Amino acid sequence: MSTAQPPLNGNKENRSDFAMRITRSFGPPGMIVVSGHVLQGCVSKGQVVEWVSDYARQHTTCLGIFLNNVEKEQACESSAEVDIYLPLSVSEPLRGSLLATPETVSLYARFMGDLEASAVLNNNARAELLFPTYVVTAEIRLPDGQENLQPEDRVEGAEFRLVRPSTLRAGEIFAIRLNGRLVGTGTIKTLTDRNA
């Protein structure tokens, strides 16, 4: 199975644009450090980047980059976790938000996806979608008049309508939680309803 991901904005073909999903953040005096894996492109010390969450976006400058506790001038797409130092003026970055090349990330209110049920899942259910570093709430609409899915049922082309637009990527895998129980898994196939 390929781990290649399409560009973050869902439409651009420029994979040189930098993007990193934030997995944690902490703050030594005078700055904030965000950690994560570079999903695409490269980031350099001194580069202007944009912090994007579901409710805010703000430009800031990369003050330092550390990879395996060694200071670097640049970090590129890899499996290693990277620490990026940002000025304190940026709002506290939240786990799951993105750090990216300015103006390359969009928020999405809807997506189409495939899902597999592990428990009964009704059409129009409002559920939490659990991604590795963030959670979003969505209404799940099953295709072609299906009223529900039974355990082990699989469906392609389900529509997910988010309560609040979020930074999403095609290909991301998530679990579905309903009333405190895991009821299935899914994969984002197509992003729609882009907000700037």
From TrEMBL:
It comes from Pseudomonas eucalypticola. Gene3D superfamilies: Translation factors (2.40.30.10). One of its GO terms (molecular function) is GTP binding. SUPFAM superfamilies: EF-Tu/eEF-1alpha/eIF2-gamma C-terminal domain, Translation proteins. Keywords: GTP-binding, Nucleotide-binding. This is Translation elongation factor EFTu/EF1A C-terminal domain-containing protein. It comes from the Bacteria. The keyword Lipoprotein does not apply. InterPro entries: Transl_B-barrel_sf (IPR009000), Transl_elong_EF1A/Init_IF2_C (IPR009001).
